[in-house]
Write a structure and sequence with these properties.
With 198 residues, the protein is α/β, with parallel strands linked by helices. It is 24% helix and 27% strand. The strands form two sheets. Strands 6-5-4-7-1-8-10-9 form an eight-stranded mixed beta sheet. It has a two-stranded antiparallel sheet with strand order 2-3.
Length: 198
């Protein structure tokens, strides 16, 4: 079974959206709000979390954003690793996956993830794909959740978990504070949170 880790930059109020364009909910005003807190030390820690070899699981919007940036980015450990990684994409347009190696997860996302996790290969990283976070966690496909908590409150934007997602429990594996103010919190999913009787 392939290990699947979600890695997300998140604000204090749970927002993960990083964008300068319009979304279905309207314009997102804050652009890349994580930039002020990123440091060379932080990048090294993120590289450690990704590992030397990995494949990625991406929503279509994140895939398109990354495909527009990473092939033209200066050579770096992250760009080299991402170019080498197979991109497993939730998409209804598999013929348009031009940044490869890339594969569609198929019409049924969760069935595609189940098949993928059963194959041999490097660990899987899911990042920046808000549409995937909730279903992957709800169906028990996530082995570890990593939140890079930035010291900022945004008040609006896409959140780590979609509205109405079932309550879940997590066990803290580790917490590390970076000098920039980012907290790297690693969690082990523990399943559904049961309602308490009153």
């Amino acid at each position: 079974m392939r290990f699947l880790r979600i890695i997300e930059h998140v604000s204090l109020d749970g927002v993960i959206e990083i964008s300068t364009g319009d979304s279905a909910a309207g314009p997102f005003p804050y652009g890349d709000w994580t930039a002020a807190y990123r440091t060379p030390e932080g990048l090294l820690r993120v590289l450690d979390l990704y590992g030397e070899e990995f494949d990625v699981v991406l929503g279509r919007r994140t895939y398109d954003l990354w495909a527009a940036y990473w092939p033209n980015a200066p050579a770096s450990p992250m760009s080299i690793r991402l170019m080498r990684a197979t991109k497993h994409v939730a998409t209804h347009r598999p013929d348009s996956l031009h940044w490869g190696p890339a594969r569609s997860l198929g019409e049924d996302l969760l069935a595609g993830i189940s098949v993928l996790r059963a194959t041999a290969g490097p660990p899987l990283i899911c990042a920046g794909s808000a549409s995937l976070t909730s279903p992957l966690l709800q169906r028990g496909h996530v082995d570890e959740l990593v939140q890079l908590v930035n010291p900022v409150y945004l008040g609006t934007g896409k959140r780590l978990m979609e509205a109405g997602a079932p309550a879940q429990r997590f066990r803290l594996l580790s917490s590390e504070a970076l000098p920039s103010g980012i907290l790297i919190n690693r969690y082990l999913p523990q399943g559904a949170l049961q309602a308490r009787e009153t």
